[in-house]
Amino acid sequence: MPSRVVVFDYGSGNLRSAQRAMERTGADVTVTSDPHAALDADGLVVPGVGAFSACMSSLRAAGGDRIIGRRVAGGRPVLGICVGMQVLFDKGVERADPRAEDQVTEGCGEWPGTVDRLRAPIVPHMGWNTVRPPEDTRLFAGIGPGERFYFVHSYAVREWEFSSHNERIREPGVTWAEHGEPFVAAVENGPLCATQFHPEKSGDAGARLLANWVATL
């Protein structure tokens, strides 16, 4: 039986492109905002584009923050994409105007850390870039070190703040990329995985990553 995957529709994200990319893995894919379907699926994909604050507001309105929390607590896989990854952290800091005060928005809090504006000569970071996954990666299994992934973002997690201080708890696997400075490009943390780049727009490398994720369901 193919794995049942829900692409969560909360009003943000490239839903159809994510759906088509997931279907190419052989999964049975549904795009829906139904919370019961999102909870019951073998895997949940949370896409996201645009501003952190707007995505978080829409996600909360659809009950997505609670759905993600319940799935992770129960060991049920979740994959966040782009801003769908960013909202998994503690908070996002945005500046609509350099003269204005920072707008701080609380995220889902699944990982400690702050999503902040990239410090780079050119922002947004738009286009293809290489990444540096950890040695024990499952998401990037079979993907060569020179492969490139497609990014479109102005904000990212620039510092990884998670530390378990417990030898029995496996540290999350963090993948890094660089645009002006290093930033978190992907995270693998048990049932909770996420990518800052768009695997559904990343050609063969992105297709392999999605297939690797579906294989874990």
Automatic annotation (TrEMBL):
Keywords: Amino-acid biosynthesis, Cytoplasm, Glutamine amidotransferase, Histidine biosynthesis, Hydrolase, Lyase. It catalyses: 5-[(5-phospho-1-deoxy-D-ribulos-1-ylimino)methylamino]-1-(5-phospho-beta-D-ribosyl)imidazole-4-carboxamide + L-glutamine = D-erythro-1-(imidazol-4-yl)glycerol 3-phosphate + 5-amino-1-(5-phospho-beta-D-ribosyl)imidazole-4-carboxamide + L-glutamate + H(+); L-glutamine + H2O = L-glutamate + NH4(+). Heterodimer of HisH and HisF. The active site is at C82 (nucleophile), H198, E200. This is Imidazole glycerol phosphate synthase subunit HisH. Residues 6-214 form the Glutamine amidotransferase domain. IGPS catalyzes the conversion of PRFAR and glutamine to IGP, AICAR and glutamate. The HisH subunit catalyzes the hydrolysis of glutamine to glutamate and ammonia as part of the synthesis of IGP and AICAR. The resulting ammonia molecule is channeled to the active site of HisF. One of its GO terms (molecular function) is lyase activity. Its main location: cytoplasm. Pathway: Amino-acid biosynthesis; L-histidine biosynthesis; L-histidine from 5-phospho-alpha-D-ribose 1-diphosphate: step 5/9. The gene is hisH. It is found in: Cytoplasm. The keyword Cytoplasm applies. PROSITE patterns: GATASE_TYPE_1. Its EC number is 4.3.2.10, 3.5.1.2. The lineage of its organism: Bacteria, Bacillati, Actinomycetota, Actinomycetes, Streptosporangiales. The keyword Cytoplasm applies. It comes from the Bacteria. CDD domains: GATase1_IGP_Synthase.
